[in-house]
Design brief:
Order of helices and strands: HEEHHEEHHE
Radius of gyration: 27 Å
CATH superfamily of the largest domain: DnaA, N-terminal domain
Largest sheet: 3 strands, mixed
Shape: elongated
CATH topology of the largest domain: GMP Synthetase, Chain A, domain 3
Number of domains: 2
CATH class of the largest domain: Alpha Beta
């Protein structure tokens, strides 16, 4: 009985420790919470592929805001920057009506966007008609 009393505090400390229990077809696995990473830790890891995707999305969002600030309403609500590749700024519009109107503003848009560091080599603007969903 004395041996059981000596083990009891140890057993309690093991069962009260934060543990993630995973149950699947292979059985039950318990993982100490100190080894589990949060989503924030994974997303914020510098140099990861996910970090590069988040950085690219942020860049496109900032460029979209820049382009939208150059345009008057309601046109600015119908355009977004879809991509930057091969020295080309690709702007999407949600309909052919806005595509027709905005293409005449390409020189002005290009002039302003080229002032942003890292984008001085842009020499062309392309437009695509592609409806988008959500807000920019």
């Amino acid at each position: 009985m004395k041996a059981l009393g000596a083990l009891l505090p140890r057993v309690l400390s093991l069962t009260l420790a934060p543990v993630l229990t995973v149950i699947n077809h292979t059985g039950i696995t318990r993982i100490a919470m100190s080894t589990v990473k949060s989503v924030n830790q994974i997303l914020s890891k510098p140099g990861s592929a996910l970090d590069a995707i988040v950085a690219r999305a942020t860049q496109l969002r900032q460029l979209t805001q820049m382009v939208q600030q150059l345009l008057d309403a309601p046109m600015n609500q119908h355009v977004y920057v879809a991509n930057v590749r091969d020295n080309t700024l690709v702007i999407g519009t949600d309909s052919s009506v806005w595509h027709t109107r905005i293409k005449y503003l390409a020189p002005m848009i290009l002039e302003h966007i080229k002032q942003k560091p890292g984008l001085q080599s842009l020499n062309r603007v392309e437009f695509r008609v592609q409806p988008f969903y959500g807000e920019f």
